[in-house]
Amino acid sequence: xxxVKNLFKNSSWMMASQIITGLFGFIWTVLTARYLGSYNFxxxxxxxxxxGIIVIFMDLGVSTxxxxxxxxxxxxxxxxxxxxxxxxxxxxxxxxxxxxxxxxIMGKNNLTIIVTLIFVLEYALMSxxxxxxxxxxxxxxxxxxxxxxxxxxxLILTFIxxxxxxKLGLIFLAFAYCFSYVVMLVYLVINSRKxxxxxxxxxxxxxxxxxxxxxxxxxxxxxxxxxxFSIDMVMLSVISGDIATGIxxxxxxxxxxxxxxxxxxxxxxxxxxxxxxxxxxxLLKLSYVKSVKYLLLIIMPITLGIVLYATPLVTLIYGNxxxxxxxxxxxxxxxxxxxxxxxxxxxxxxxxxxxxSVTKIYCVAAIFNICLNFxxxxxxxxxxxxxxxxxxxxxxxxxxxxVIKDSPYCxxxxxxxxxxxxxxxxxxxxxxxxxxxxxMWFGIISxxxxxxxxxxGFKTLDNEDKALLHDIIK
Length: 474
What we know:
By secondary structure, the protein is an all-alpha fold. 88% of the residues lie in helices and 0% in strands.
């Protein structure tokens, strides 16, 4: 099987899992928001954001480090898994204890503390799952990871239905997430032993020290990235209250669904780029250039479509109680386009041993984001938090360009011509739909047609794109 077909196979599995997860996640987000109401949904939003920060210390970047090294040499898998599993167990236990102490210092009420600790436990299970998923990615057997993700999503949705039907409350809802991740982790462990390798368990302080040393840049990058993606909800909860947090999170959840495609890209491309760094620098550059083009080709028209139909979309999903989330989403949706472009750049740099540069960029962005949130949230509440996130992404984009322009992987001018064509096609679609004034459903159909015609008319797809498509279909 050619490399392109293998990529397509893995992408198809991950896309299927992400579509199913995105659909299920969309359903349970709506059901949860409606069932809990703004106050309890705000508590849950805080708990997940808090756990999302703590999970970084449970991993310390070792999953990404292991994935990169195992991709370059599959023989390392047994040794890496066997020595990193005990390390991750220890890190998780320490993180849970630290979380309890922080929550008491913050003065959170008992319900918030209990729910948050449950989600911290869930994220510990997720962190361990990521290590095994890295093994599947390294060996190009992503279908097992995809199946595990589908099982997890199905169980979460099922338990949420049960929670709502029997009115079991927020705490049981939080436990539902934990149990689902337990089942997924068991599935991943069993299939990893069957299809990847049997871990050679050994407690090795020297190996763990070395792994942590090389993993720290990945961990710091995750920390800084999580800060500007999650700290806004924590700050909103403290400054503006749980209702404002719930309104903001309603928009944020929709944006999360829109990013469904990006994890597919990252899971499939990162191991490939890691291999190409050792094998072919020219192909590595090509994979980056095509990544930026294809990611923007997909996400740019969606971004402008959301700007046009944000308010009716929010009210359709959540009801009139969340109508104030519409303008927030019109701002927040711009993070998606920049997230995709920045993600492609960070994947390239991480795969080519430039992870320290990525860490520095996200450190600057995180500090910048915190300052913006302190300035904007007191003035504009959730609108200010959304604006701070978008501006931070723009800053990251400029910093990534600055680093890559001095590397061997700097794109030539043709990529900028393609980007202009994609943006112009998306703007034409937006202007026509806004002028005609179609409702959302007819607008979606008409938008697809208008955008496709523009892309073809501007000849955005070149001979290389057509050759790749032909290789997939052949």
